[in-house]
């Protein structure tokens, strides 16, 4: 296993982290036996970073059960889990959710604790006003939290604000070869590294879409360039090629995925991508981007929208639905709604005030395009369904 150093703590972390969110299931529930086999094998092969979250239904509890069944396993790994900020209304809620996570995980400390899915500087301000900073410092003093970070799905500009808002120990961003200019993007990765922060990467395969469902032209570009590597392996190696990346999370559900990822992680050292592979990725990116319908770069200049619509993320989801399939676009659309961190906002919340139009350097007719987003992705009853789902997950 390749290891990379957490630049803040000096800990050696496996370049491949296990994203527990996609534990194998059976009959709609987590299959703890199958998950145990995967986790034990991953750890035996060198993986030492496990990522879960309070909001991943049944996930922390399954991991806690696996630790109990395997004495000594917990001490061999760094556990990351996340605070459901959207459900924190008073300071005591921080304690409540941390205690529940510790109980479920059957541990007395969290190695890497994240504020889950911060999407804006305003979301951080709300958290700070609840006394989050003092609370974290107390938890660190008593050893319940070792390191504090945040996972991020908001616009680029706010990421930079967040980086400098608190003395973070690490951060977690969405990053892959299609998202260099989306959310934190390459600029965010570099800014975090400049501040000496370890960066954990999620969605290296864009929810699996850089693995199997590339548009035909993108696939041809790879084979024409003589790239025999399969698209998933190439996409992962592209992320690991960046020395600023510390850990890449992969949600693995099968032994085959686990073994392939471990093999890839072993050799994907920073700077190891060959020239022909770099060109092939650029070609694939071009073809995928060409299938996008709205030329939004994700710059975020149009924000904030007075109605809270996350304009760039709506367009990203819309584009994804053409390039990688409707279901992937829908998944992204729900994430873009901000449902996990507060009141969900959808394209349909646009009142066509026009305040955003002048701000867009790409001259996109934003309200009109949001109507297209609504037509394609907003199935009837979606807002109510999303709100209900979030409510159930927070129990
Ligand atoms: S036109 Fe719509 S998206 Fe643009 S600022 Fe107004 S409400 Fe927000
Ligand atoms: S809609 Fe325009 S201003 Fe808004 S993020 Fe996209 S490109 Fe930037």
Name a few traits of the molecule.
alpha/beta, 395 residues, 12 strands, single chain, two-stranded antiparallel sheet, eight-stranded parallel β-barrel, binds iron/sulfur cluster
Q: How would you sum up the global shape?
A: globular
Strand content is: 5-15%
The parts where pLDDT drops under 50 for at least 5 residues are: none
| Percentage of residues assigned to helices | 40-55%
Order of strands in the sheet with the most strands? 3-6-7-8-9-10-11-12
The count of β-strands is 12
Largest sheet: 8 strands, parallel, barrel
SSE order in H/E notation? Answer: EEEEEHEHEHEHHEHEHEHHEHHHHHH
Ligands present: iron/sulfur cluster
- Mean pLDDT across every amino acid position: 88
Q: Give the quaternary arrangement of the chains.
A: single chain
Number of H- or I-type helical stretches? 15
Radius of gyration: 20 Å
Distance between the termini: 37 Å
**Structural class, please?**
alpha/beta
């Amino acid at each position: 296993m390749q290891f990379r150093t957490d630049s803040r703590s000096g800990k050696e972390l496996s370049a491949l982290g296990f994203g527990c969110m996609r534990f194998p299931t059976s009959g709609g529930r987590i299959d703890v036996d199958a998950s145990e086999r995967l986790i034990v094998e991953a750890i035996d092969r060198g993986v030492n970073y496990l990522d879960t979250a309070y909001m991943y239904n049944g996930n922390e509890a399954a991991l806690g059960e696996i630790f109990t069944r395997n004495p000594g396993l917990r001490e061999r790994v760094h556990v990351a889990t996340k605070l459901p900020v959207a459900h924190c209304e008073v300071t005591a809620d921080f304690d409540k959710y941390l205690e529940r996570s510790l109980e479920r995980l059957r541990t007395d400390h969290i190695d890497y604790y994240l504020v889950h899915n911060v999407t804006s500087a305003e979301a951080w301000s709300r958290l700070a006003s609840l006394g989050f900073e003092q609370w974290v410092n107390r938890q660190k003093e008593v050893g319940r939290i070792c390191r504090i970070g945040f996972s991020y799905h908001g616009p680029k500009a706010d990421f930079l604000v967040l980086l400098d808002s608190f003395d973070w120990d690490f951060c977690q961003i969405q990053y892959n070869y299609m998202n260099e200019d989306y959310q934190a993007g390459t600029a965010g990765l570099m800014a975090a590294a400049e501040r000496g922060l370890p960066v954990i990467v999620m969605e290296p395969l864009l929810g699996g879409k850089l693995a199997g469902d590339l548009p035909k032209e993108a696939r041809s570009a790879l084979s024409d360039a003589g790239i025999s590597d399969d698209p998933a392996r190439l996409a992962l190696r592209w992320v690991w090629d960046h020395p600023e990346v510390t850990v890449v999370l992969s949600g693995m559900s099968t032994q085959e995925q686990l073994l392939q990822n471990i093999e890839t992680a072993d050799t994907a050292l920073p700077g190891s991508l060959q020239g022909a592979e770099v060109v092939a990725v650029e070609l694939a990116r071009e073809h995928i981007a060409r299938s996008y319908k709205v030329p939004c770069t994700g710059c975020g200049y149009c924000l904030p929208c007075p109605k809270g619509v996350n304009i760039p993320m709506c367009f990203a989801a819309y584009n994804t639905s053409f390039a990688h399939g409707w279901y992937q676009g829908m998944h992204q659309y729900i994430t873009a709604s901000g449902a996990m961190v507060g009141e969900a906002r959808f394209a349909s919340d646009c009142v066509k005030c026009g305040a955003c139009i002048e701000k867009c350097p790409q001259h996109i007719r934003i309200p009109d395009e949001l109507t297209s987003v609504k037509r394609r992705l907003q199935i009837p009853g979606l807002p109510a369904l999303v709100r209900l789902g979030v409510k159930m997950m927070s129990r």
